[in-house]
Amino acid sequence: MHSKQPRPYVRSLRQTRPWHRYVGISLFLFILISSITGILLSWKKQSDWLQPNDKHHIEQNDSKNWLSLDELKSIAERTLAEEGINQPIIDRMDVRPKKGMVKVLFKNDDWEVQLELSTGKVLSVSQRNADWIERLHDGSIISEGFKLFSMNLLGIGLLILSFTGLWLWFGPKLVKKSH
């Protein structure tokens, strides 16, 4: 009497399906958030709502005529205070010499003040929504530890889903060939 044992491909496919299903279900929320925020971030240079465009204002590109970073910092802080932002805290200053401007980025609700380097003239005051979307995208909106955990979990999970999905697609073709 010949026993009907499932062929190795069939057994492997049966074992792979639950892995694919449970990993996919477990990571659904992470994948959804990462996908939506990733799409938004890919458009940040095309949308003023996500990230303000650079204001070009070059009268003199000679760095000898630029205001000091301290002077530019003071102008930017004063500008935000006039907008009603209390005690603005600078995150970083992004100097763009070829454009003759500096972006002063604040931690307070992701504000940005763009200033002309040589005169300190305010070119733009805007919120950078792309910054909090990026923090949501990578998990750092919760904490740096959560970011490390969630991005590793997502990366490993996507690798598992990719390999199990490929096998679930390719395996049945092998089963049909072996008939």
Q: Tags for this entry?
A:
4 strands, Nuclear Transport Factor 2, Chain: A, 179 residues, 4-stranded antiparallel beta sheet, 2 domains, alpha+beta
Distance between the termini: 20 Å
Overall structural class, as computed from helix and strand content, comes to: alpha+beta
pLDDT < 50 runs, ≥5 residues: none
Number of helices: 4
Count every beta strand, where a strand is a DSSP E run of 2 or more residues.
4
Gyration radius from CA atoms, angstroms? 26 Å
Order of helices and strands: HHEEEEHH
- Spatial strand arrangement across the major sheet: 1-2-3-4
Kindly state the percentage of residues in helix: 40-55%
Major sheet size, sense and barrel closure: 4 strands, antiparallel
Mean pLDDT: 89
DSSP strand content: 5-15%
Instruction: Please tell me the total number of domains.
Output: 2
